[in-house]
Design goal:
Blueprint lengths: L22 H11 L3 E4 L11 H10 L4 E6 L7 H10 L2 E5 L5 H8 L4 H13 L6 E7 L7 H11 L5 E6 L16 H17 L4 E4 L14 H8 L15 H4 L12 H7 L20
The structure holds iron/sulfur cluster (2 copies).
């Protein structure tokens, strides 16, 4: 539904094209399929097009009852907009790449940090803190600050549903700036500290798009591992399949792991992938 965005994130892997989807046609198609729940996301920022509530109205008329929203929270700085959104949205997945204004500015190439933070605080003030799911993309611009972010999130939003750390994908705009993809081995110690900090504070956390061998002893936080444990396909629809990799072929964790990511291999190769002998059934899934 989105066609534009009010930020210009350096890692945006699905940037807006400006192409406008027909609201009524989309609603009719969903009605025909009997869709009852939708996630408003993709191709930009859903709240930035000026027709956000028109979409909700049309989709509700088509029978949709549950809405999730992926947002950068900038539009939620407007208290009236935020109040209206809270009445409609079950979960807000908030792309918030840093709790530090200078880092946020570099990553999003914007001066909207305070608006995004105000959006988060408005959600909290409106009693919707439990509806917040932090979506924190791990990039070269913020990986050293992951533990600090974890402590910040636990302190300031102790009732948020969870924190999702997702390793940056070398796609879309990121392809023009591959330097923003850190090495797994550089980022891993900070990722582990951040996950531990959230766990110690009683918060739920998950990490996505990073191989299990890189998460050694923290595998239970892996989103893909948790999917496998639930009996789901390990990779979500729309995610590139695993790349061929000699270490993966020998690894006992291969069914439960996102495997070698083809976009990552283009930047840093496969040298960090290490075949494991662990039994995936012996790994305890963390709370999520
Ligand atoms: S990542 Fe999200 S917030 Fe950032 S530019 Fe892309 S659509 Fe906008
Ligand atoms: S070697 Fe491959 S399959 Fe095994 S944990 Fe690493 S990336 Fe996953």
């Amino acid at each position: 539904m989105a066609r534009t965005c009010n930020l210009y994130c350096v890692y945006c892997h699905n940037p807006p094209t400006g192409e406008k989807r027909d609201i009524l046609k989309t609603a009719a198609a969903l009605k025909k399929r009997g869709v009852k729940a939708v996630s408003l996301e993709g191709g930009g920022e859903p709240t930035a097009g000026g027709d956000f509530f028109d979409w909700i109205k049309a989709l509700k008329a088509a029978g949709v009852r549950r809405f999730m929203l992926s947002t950068n929270a900038v539009a939620l700085a407007d208290a009236a907009f935020c109040r209206k959104a809270v009445r409609e949205i079950e979960y807000f997945t908030v792309n918030f790449p840093s709790h530090r204004e200078d880092v946020y500015a570099k990553i999003t190439r914007s001066v909207k940090f305070r608006m995004a933070l105000k959006g988060l605080l408005n959600l909290k003030a409106l009693g919707a803190e439990e509806k917040i799911r932090f979506f924190h993309i791990i990039s070269a611009g913020n990986y050293r600050l992951l533990p600090e972010f974890a402590v910040w999130a636990a302190r300031n939003f102790p009732r948020a549903a969870f924190v999702n750390f997702t390793f940056v994908r070398n796609k879309g705009r990121a392809l023009k700036a591959a330097r923003i993809v850190p090495r797994y081995t550089q980022a891993a110690p900070f990722i582990k500290l951040a996950l531990a900090a959230l766990k110690v504070n009683g918060r739920k956390a998950v990490v996505q798009n990073i191989p299990l061998c890189v998460l050694k002893d923290f595998e239970g936080f892996s989103f893909e591992f948790q999917r496998w444990r639930r009996g789901d396909k390990v990779l979500e629809d729309g995610i590139d399949p695993k790349a061929p990799c000699a270490a993966c072929a020998r690894c006992t964790l291969k069914d439960a792991c996102c495997g070698a990511r083809p976009d990552y291999l283009k930047v840093h190769g496969a040298a960090e992938m290490k075949a494991s002998r662990k039994d995936p059934l012996a790994i305890t899934p963390e709370r999520f």
